[in-house]
Task: structure prediction
Amino acid sequence: MRRNTMNANTKLLNCVNRASVTGSGTAAGLVGSANGNAWTPLNPLISGCANFGTISNGTNNFSAGIVGTAYYTTLSECYNVGSATGNRVGGILGQTDSNTTVTSCYNAGAITLAAAGNYNYAGSLIGYNDGGSVSNCYYLTGMQAIGRGSGDTTALTEEQLKSLDTVLKLGGAFVNDAKNQNSGYPVLAWQDADAIAARSCLRCAERGADPGGGRHLSPCLRKLYLSCHAR
Result:
């Protein structure tokens, strides 16, 4: 599913785009523009979404895997593995403002600045962050996280981004790619319900809940334990 514009009192949850998108102003895999405001209590929410498609916007601004531009918007638990090209371009967001929050997202897609210029910015996660809150977000090494602006971001190698440690850091919305539907990168839990049980069992093991290697669990939980350790 893809929306051109979202306004206040709207949500986009658990959606994926696999199509190529070509624009002439704003181009994104899921939402072109998300526009909230200061006087509405419920501003746009985009959560649990992913983009696999190629996003092309020529030499125009505002290109991204998930959202082209976001104002007074909350964006959480999304990822991009598709490529994106534009002049304010990012894997997650092209441009955002100081009233937008971005949490627990990652980008593994190739991001390309279409043309050099004083006001053109490319970032693995966000092209231009004009004061928005960015936390717990991850991206592949080799490119800066945010073209202009800052946030709580971490650069990882491909191996690190695919690791269980990163899955756990991203939070409960993500699971490991047990079915190899995303080349080993983390996927959203709704994309693979079977992985939720394996993830839960791994957390128990990490916390020392079963020092007996599965022997002290109930038959049902032991089956899950052994299943996840066989992966």
Summary: Confidence is low (pLDDT under 50) at residues 210-217. The first helix runs from residue 158 to 161.
